[in-house]
Please model this.
Amino acid sequence: MNIAELQAYGYFALVVFLVIALYSYIYHLYSTDKKKGGHDYEKFSNIALNDDISDAPVSPMSDDKEK
Amino acid sequence: MENRPLEYDYTVAKMFMFTTIALGIVGMLIGVILAFELAFPEINTILGQGLAEYTNYSRLRPLHTDAVIFGFTLSGIWATWYYVGQRVLKVSMAESKFLMFIGKLHFWLYMVGVVAVVASLFLGITTSKEYAEFEWPIDIAIVVVWVLFGVSIFGLIGIRREKSLYISIWYYIATFLGIAMLYLFNNMEIPTMLASNAAGESGIGAWYHSVSMYAGTNDALVEWWYGHNAVAFGFTVPIVAMIYYFLPKESGQAIYSYKLSLLSFWGLMFVYLWAGGHHLLYSTVPDWMQTMGSIFSVILILPSWGSAINMLLTMKGEWQQVAASPLIKFMVLGSTFYMFSTLEGPIQAIKSVNAIAHFTDWIVGHVHDGTLGWVGFMIMAALYHMAPRVFKREIYSKSLMVSQFWIQTLGVVLYFTSMWIAGITQGMMWRAHDEFGNLAYSFIDTVTVLHPYYAIRGVGGLLYLVGFLMFAYNIYKTMSARPVEESELQNASPMGA
Model:
């Protein structure tokens, strides 16, 4: 097997890996949804809608310190 | 002074708004001149034979592409970054003297770069690599400017109040990282003064000249990996960053699906970097690489449409806003053109289609429905949304905006339809042959046939430029329009007459 063939097989393996990673991510996003007691991703839209400097942050930095 | 409430500081955003408009006018004006030079060749020497060196097509062409990519678009990206960044991170640049200094330095060093680029390209000093024409001293200056942009992004993120990074911030970060990687690798070059030739001579050529570190097919591969991803990380990623902020904000609607925005983001990141090979179909690069370039280009439809559909669905139930607000019109048409050109691109990347489309005007048409319809419309919409907020004035004229919208839309339609017809005509004529395999047409036959379409393209470009001048005038007059109350700036931008 020469270097070009190796590259091509490597490339194919990478593509398969990326596809699996992307689909796992989609599964992760939807399976940890709010309804199932997980993360509420949709609330992050409010970061743009309520973006005055006086508005309360959607997830304040200070949350970390309180824990 | 001490008792004034904290406000966002738009000083640097305003500076970049100015260059967006100024460099937009320069780049688009040169583009219109070029279009008419192609239709009417005598314009190449319009200022006489003595000055023909400076007015001919080949000297002006990189000035057009670089002015609209690295001038208009980059300035627009930075103007919006220095606006959106503060707002979604809920931190003001006024809170950090350091970041304010970096922002201003970023702007002024960029201005130095712009002057150097314009002067060197006018003088004909170029590496002759498409979209990477700058010689090594300018490349180094650009890297410094880019690092300052990075310091600004991560500096602002470092002092933020909002823990979660809004989707637009992810896109701005991707712009920063993507261009940094592409620019560095594609511009690897050796100054000729450091090189020596086969005869043993050294110190060849002027001090600013350089040669690419790659040769032949490798150079082409790196160049188009860069070239196509400059479209990705210059014309797609940061513009998506803009629409994810400005469309929800202007319409008052939350993003249709935040999850879809996340997965489109990662989809785009995975797929885009592999598609550049489609620029080199039927060339000397390995066949599997060409096939992969084609396949990834087709897959690219998914993440692109994921973002575009998300934007259109954000308007669900609120379509009356499209009729009522010219600003929403710009953004909705922008995302429609995004869908359109991200479908057209993959079609052109299919090998059998590419056999006709490659090297023809259809490609030029494709680039321009993306840049004029998507990039241009979105940047103008962003500046229109920002203007009332940074100047605390209502937009000077709504009716002027509406007229601008229709004039420019007509311009874009004339541009891409004429280039479709011209491109396919060209492609078919180039490959036509008789029963013995002799070519049916010579090159000049195609030129004669294409003349009317080149003239129509020039008119389309001119209409777009006229609209851009209307935009510039509207923003200029906004600075002296009726002052507005803070409460008027919640969602829909206030507009005068």
Chain A touches chain B at residues 4, 8, 11, 18, 21-22, 25-26, 29-30, 33, 41-49, 51, 53-55, 57-61, 63-64 (CB under 8 Å). The mean pLDDT of chain A is 83. Chain A has three helices and no strands. Residues 3-52 of chain A form one domain.
